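hey all, quick one before standup. I had two proteins in the batch that finished overnight and I want to keep them in one place so we stop losing track of which output belongs to which input. First protein below, input sequence then structure tokens straight from the run.
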Amino acid sequence: MINKVVNNAEEAIQGIQDGMTLMLGGFGLCGIPENTIAALVKKGVKDLTCISNNAGVDDFGIGLMLQKNQLKKMIASYVGENAEFERQLLSGELDVELVPQGTLATRCMAAGYGMPAIFTPAGVGTEVAEGKEVRVFNGKEYLLEEAFDADFAIVKAWKGDTAGNLIYRLTARNFNPIMAMAGKVTIAEVEELVPAGELDPDHIHTPGIFVHRIYKGEKYEKRIEQRTLRS
């Protein structure tokens, strides 16, 4: 069996270089690969294209990479909670591609399935459609969107085994499973790492065939982006 286990985040990100395209799982601050992002910040790689649902907040998650000016382009569906992101966008320092959330998810899924592109009604007749092919199916217009092409996919799971099988917990599943399928190399950090064969096959969300490197993370903050309490 191929040894997929690495000791830490620093080992996991070996091979990530300036100018690469990275997918980062998570939704807001839920289910983000905290340890791997911290290692990328420490390594200082730059000119990255980042594909993620959103850009985190100013002092956590992808926001830490923005602070270090490590991103040249951000592909996301929502960017509303990050003042530094806004500053870089308005100043022209950061190239931004806003993608409808369902389209973002499906372009990830298409990459995982080996499909070159999808057709979607989302964005037809808007700025999103400028310069893109539109075709008609059954009398309705659909926009061609290409599958993503990411050098690395970086995800976070609740539990994994040494064969790379992953289980996510509750809403932290979000974008992680479809991104885990889509990278040329997939890095998974997990809260609990167990020997191969210990996970119930019926509970596995991402089969190990998609995962190339796995390690046990530590000191998870698991911040809540917007805490809402019942009055």
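OK second protein, same deal, sequence then tokens:
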Amino acid sequence: MGWSTSQLADLAGTTLRTIRHYHDVGLLAEPERRANGYKSYGVPHLVRVLRIKRLTDLGLSLAQIADLGDSDEHPREALRELDAELEAQIERLQRVRAELALVLRQETPTDLPPDVAVMIEDADLSPQDRSFTVVLAQLLSPETLVKYAETLKDYSRDPAVIEFDHLPEDADEQTRQRLAERMRAMPYMAEMRAAFPDPAGLWSDAPRGVEHARRTVVKVMVELYNKAQLDVLVRMNG
């Protein structure tokens, strides 16, 4: 006499719900039924359930197991693929742990790469400028981002920058032009022009492409700065 569904689940160390799910997704063949209508499972069913359970414990999905069919007792290729995936995951987790250790050790903010956060931790950035830098960190290549961060290491808020931060949207033409000229003359701007003679060069090697970076930068600037501030930035870089 064979086993009932509950007995099969108990022998395999699983649950009734799991056995029923294996039936539903086609991983486990339906057994014969006894005269009273109850299912009667045999050794092949138990072996199949144990094999499925073992493969899922190793990390294969039920869909992957289904693709293997019933006869492959040693799915070499599937296990090799799984091993490669696990190796990549381990490498990623090791990188995350190394970065986490740096963040914890140096108590740097988590919205920027640790090396960049360390470089600009003493920069007196306004909330808007810092938000802009955080977005740039997602757009620029690692090399360009470090180069950009280098220009911010000794950044301090010049009186012209403070005026810019508080510039009302209805600032008149004369005020905008005068402020643009003052900001253009700041030492920081000289450093930025030396590092990036062409402003578009900032995202010339952006991983997701120049156009994506440009569109994102424009959208971010429109949200962070009012129309008068944007006009000053255009004049300053004109």
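Flagging for whoever picks this up: Strands lie at 32-33, 39-40. The longest helix spans residues 76-106.
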